[in-house]
Here is the input.
Amino acid sequence: KAGVTQTPRYLIKTRGQQVTLSCSPISGHRSVSWYQQTPGQGLQFLFEYFSETQRNKGNFPGRFSGRQFSNSRSEMNVSTLELGDSALYLCASARTSGSPEQFFGPGTRLTVL
Amino acid sequence: KNEVEQSPQNLTAQEGEFITINCSYSVGISALHWLQQHPGGGIVSLFMLSSGKKKHGRLIATINIQEKHSSLHITASHPRDSAVYICAVRWGNQFYFGTGTSLTVIP
Here is the structure.
C-alpha cells in the first residue's frame, strides 16, 4: 500500500506570494493533519481535515488555510508569505479523526526569500 | 510551559552503548508516540503507546501513565540510529510535540 505523498517536495517563494501544498493520504484514510516544523519552534499542529471538514485548528494566523477533497486528498494554502513561514510542512494521514495512529508524509520544504 | 518536555536535547554516544531518551508530559493523553526523523525530514512512527512497554528490535519504549513519563531505549546503538527522536502525545484531537532529541552515534 502506497504511503502518504506530498507535492512538491521543495519550493522557493518570495515574500508576499502565496503557496499551495498538496497531500495524498494512504488509501482508505480519511483524516489528514498538517504540521509545520521549524528549527526554533519544532513541530506544531496546523489543522486537521476529516470528511472534507476542518475538525481542529492550531494557533496559526488566518493566512494558513486548507481544504480536503472528496477523495481525501488535502491542500494547504499560505497567503502573503513571510520569511518566518520558511519551514518543513508535513502532513499525516489516519483512518479516522481522533485516531491516535498517524502516518507521516516526507514533507514539503518551503523557503521564503 | 510546553505540554511535552524531552531530555536530553542532544546526545552523543559510542557505537554499542545503551541509550535512553526521556519524555514527560503535562496533559492527559489517549496515546504517546515516539517518532524518528532522519536528515532530509521524513518522519517515521516508531511506537504508539497507551500503557506498559513495547519492543521492536533494539528499540524499547515504556510509559508510566501515573507519572506522565515515557522513555525510549536503544540497545547496542549503531551509527544508523543517528537521528532526531521526537515524543508526541495525542490529547483530544491534537498532537503536542516535544522539541526532539538529536542523537549521534559515533562508530
